Amino acid sequence: MPTVFRYRGYRFFFYSNEGDPLEPLHIHVIKGENIAKFWVDPEVSVAQSYGMNPSELTKLTKIVGEHRELIREFWNEYFNN
Predict the structure, then answer these.
(1) Rg (alpha carbons) of the chain, rounded to whole number
(2) CA atoms within 13 A of residue 65's CA, in its CB half-sphere
(3) Which of 20, 27, 56, 76 suits a disulfide with 52, CB 3.0-4.6 Å?
(4) pTM over 0.90
(5) Can you give the residue ranges of every domain in the chain?
């Protein structure tokens, strides 16, 4: 599970096997036992969430948006090699 970055106890990552065919660009976020998945393109949105409250998801959506280019670069480097 390659980690892209960490922020205030949250780990932003993706799974090395993201499906066949590969799913569109997205990022997983985990803290403790709570996890969420965010689509990155065409706009940042919550794909699914387990254990995270709405205000937490709003905050994380903003963080994913702020790091969109980093996530995209890491994704492309990892999956296009």
Answers:
(1) 12
(2) 11
(3) 56
(4) yes
(5) 3-79
